[in-house]
Amino acid sequence: MNKIVMGAALVLLTGAMGSAIAGDAAAGKAKSQLCASCHGANGISAVPIYPNLAGQKEQYIVKQLKAFKAGTRKDPLMSPMAAPLSDADVDNLAAYFSSLK
After folding, report:
1. Spatial separation of the C-alpha atoms in residues 100 and 97, rounded to whole Å
2. DSSP per residue over 45-61, as a string?
3. Domains in the chain, start-ordered, CATH in brackets?
4. Which residue of 14, 31, 97, 99 shows the fewest CB atoms closer than 10 Å?
5. Where are the alpha helices (H) located in the chain, listed in sequence order?
6. Which pTM value belongs to this model?
7. What pLDDT score does 22 carry?
8. Of the candidates 91, 100, 87, which has an alpha carbon nearest to the alpha carbon of residue 59?
9. Which has the closest alpha carbon to 69: 83, 59, 81, 80?
10. What's the CA gap between 40 and 4, in Å, rounded?
11. Dihedral pair phi/psi, residue 27, rounded to 5°
């Protein structure tokens, strides 16, 4: 009985923590043209100081872009790039980059 209850609780918790992001990867790809100059055309940077975005977790990308936009994370290049992004843009970019290998 306890195994069943624990299993059900785990399923509920996993579902609650699951991706609530509903980004459009195709729209994210179209929006990613500016990102490519630093992060590479396919999300793989040729410059060691810029992180690879391909394959990053969707929620991580959303969190970081929103932090740059809000000013809670600061970077002289990324902060102004994130500032004009809408929530939909952020979700779309996250969907796109997380879909890449």
Report:
1. 5
2. -SSTTSPP-TT--HHHH
3. 2-99 (1.10.760.10)
4. 14
5. 2-17, 25-31, 33-39, 58-70, 78-82, 87-99
6. 0.79
7. 85
8. 91
9. 83
10. 47
11. -65, -35
The residues, ordered by sequence, that sit 6+ positions from 26 with a Cβ below 8 Å of its Cβ are 96
* DSSP secondary structure letter of residue 2: H
Mean pLDDT by 10 residues, the chain (101 residues): 50 48 92 95 95 97 98 97 97 98 92
**What is the SS3 assignment for 84?**
coil
pLDDT of residue 82: 97
DSSP annotation of 1: -
Structure tokens at 72: 């809670």
What pLDDT, on the 0 to 100 scale, is given for residue 13? Answer: 46
Amino acid, res. 55: G
Whether 62 contacts 21, CB under 8 Å: yes
75-78: which pairs have CB atoms within 8 A and are 24 or more residues apart? 77/38
39 vs 33: CA distance, rounded Å: 10
